[in-house]
Design goal:
82 residues
């Protein structure tokens, strides 16, 4: 995991804490922020793919989607049983 949690603050102080954290970040060049975001997204995607439970969930979702697309009593290929 990325472990990006910096600190915990009371709800009443959250906006001020976020603003204080974000100010130095938004001063960075836009291209650097774009590349950093792309790298973090790539890391997150790779981490999801390495998690077998994610793959199982994706497989189950694909099967469910194929089943929903098939006619009632169909075999998932668009045809029906004879």
């Amino acid at each position: 995991e990325l472990s990006v949690l910096q600190r915990v603050v009371p709800a009443a102080e959250l906006d001020d804490a976020v603003t204080a954290w974000a100010k130095p970040v938004v001063r960075r060049p836009e291209a650097a922020l774009r590349v950093t975001k792309a790298l973090l997204n790539s890391y997150a995607a790779a981490t999801r793919l390495a998690d077998p439970s994610f793959l199982d969930a994706e497989l189950m979702a694909s099967v469910a989607a194929a089943t929903r697309r098939s006619p009632a009593g169909g075999n998932g290929t668009g045809g029906s049983h004879s």
